[in-house]
């Protein structure tokens, strides 16, 4: 099965969640999804790590089927190209609450992802003065504390996922030659406050 055949990879085990929870691996997977196939050397330049270290992290991602070999993009047969196996990775934290090892692995992964989201948003805030004002005005951030029932929160999750998928389809219609379309981060959270 190639990445074109799968829209999502699903993590089922504590071991797979622990593999992905490493910040460098999360970053490498994100780069492969956003930029397409790369070699360890190319990825090393982006994340400022030695190709040997990158190769190690890539082998860990491949071991849980999150990445796969890609067709070579150059004549150099020594280069090994990698691509994301799917457009997204999913797991359901609620399914892991009863198993301490799975719960801990899921929690570690959630926290690593939250740190990446926070770092990306901080980079955006720092870059705001250099961005075209119309792009800054088009962006959105905000929060509300809502009082909802379980059924209402479930319905909101369904609506948010549907909205995200609709805009994902719009994104897919833009190719790299379309200079009017740029990468846009979409992050949403809705959860019961502890």
Automatic annotation (TrEMBL):
State the name under which the record lists this protein: Helix-turn-helix domain-containing protein
Q: Residue ranges of the HTH arsR-type domain?
A: 15-87
Q: Which Pfam families match?
A: HTH_20
Question: Matching Gene3D superfamilies, A to Z?
Answer: Winged helix-like DNA-binding domain superfamily/Winged helix DNA-binding domain
| Origin: domain of life | Bacteria
